């Protein structure tokens, strides 16, 4: 093109049109530079300016969405990921992030659709997608429960609007130490600004509660604790004289590693500068903290350790790390205090606690029970708070604390007061800008997991009753004296796990083609463990097949129903109620000792006593037939004159029923 012959007004127009494009490119370069340095809050400011001048391409839109996600601004993250997934050439991982944003915003049904789409585009992630879809269903169920598990309320006295306050830990009887980025300067030390969030660096604060339960004004800990970078998530010994806390070190390396000082992100995002966490301890002398010492297993060159949590007796310290050999992005470890006061070699808390995701923010209550947060176990969204049963070397179960302790957002950093019914937790559930707040809670009804196992009762070749898993049993479950009921199906192992409340009772009816229906009343005491085991034993509904009732014993030469026998007959009564059309013959048998006539009379009286007991329990008389067989139907070789051990004689002294 010959520019000498272009009219002046066209040249001016071209120059004016090129100016916004050039400005947009300049803003975009600034934004990308901030993004690549993990200064996401600063990057967003520049991305907004660039987007006003020029429509973002797919890479820029992804980075904008990522920046909102990594600063926990979930509403904007959802909006931008919705745009990204509609763009050609986008990475399928954006579908996953879109689903996570939807779930974080409580849009569970929409999130399920996106998880499904993600699995279609990335088939190797199908199992993970199915798990997340099941989590959505669980979250809907928890949210829709009529009676809340707890009352949860944001604390205005501890929180500062627009800043993050989180991870409270007990400090003495009426005080806590918590983490905040409110940015208080002390003795000339600037709190600084963290480019990731656009807020000051994290510092540790202490707050005390007066006699009325009101929190006083928080004060920053001594500058020996709060240095010029991040200082967070602390735990003190019971006497308050030693503090363990987390510090962040900026490490320059050209390999993958952790970038977020309070949590962890995908290691693929880290290029050069790595934020690594370390644990430090400090002794209190008077009003100041001194003697800062590093944890023996800090290793900033290779991995992070952080989030220390001491047991009440000070003998165990739990912490979080992404050290090699773990099970996921971050795992919970523990270390035991040695006789010389040092800490022993860290031990991974195991596969029941740790998942392929992130486990973090451990806490140990007065009874030594472990609480922690995870995004790998089934939850409502983001980090959920879980309670672990067992001990540090032998965990038996992990249970979600349920709604409203947990929400669709991040919930973590729980602690309990002395009453074990109230406490504090951290959450960003009400935040639009990604900040966290401290909430108080009061447990109204403690959750419990009811682990139902359905079993089939059979006799083996030795004529002994055995119980084998019975899969695919349909369960009808209702809270006692409530009209609402739900149905469920046990899995291939005959298992079903349901959420209940301590102090409640539940009615369960089980059915499967070819088996007698079963009825069970599950009474959950207030002192029950967090997981309650319930077994439902099923018998086949075949006619004229003997079903041996276990634990039916009689005193010598007597036929009265003992208390232990009554419990077994009560179970039979429940079977008859659950199967109202069947009629049975209830028979009693003896061993070969004593005469034929004597055993015949004794067995008839015992059978009739059992029938009379069932009639007293409300079973119609015409459904029951008593039959005594004496020693005429022995199940083994122990006949007259044959020497047998008592165990084999006991096999013959049995009570049976047959469907007529």
UniProtKB/TrEMBL annotation:
The places in or outside the cell where this protein is found are: Cell outer membrane
Q: Which GO cellular component terms are attached?
A: cell outer membrane
Q: Where is the OmpA-like domain?
A: 541-660
Q: Where is the signal peptide?
A: 1-24
**What keywords would UniProt list here?**
Cell outer membrane, Membrane, Signal
Q: Name one Pfam family in it.
A: PD40
| Highest taxon of source | Bacteria
Principal localisation: membrane
Q: Where are the transmembrane segments?
A: none
Q: What is this protein called?
A: WD40-like Beta Propeller Repeat
User: Which species expresses this protein natively?
Assistant: Pontibacter lucknowensis
Q: What is the lineage of its organism?
A: Bacteria, Pseudomonadati, Bacteroidota, Cytophagia, Cytophagales
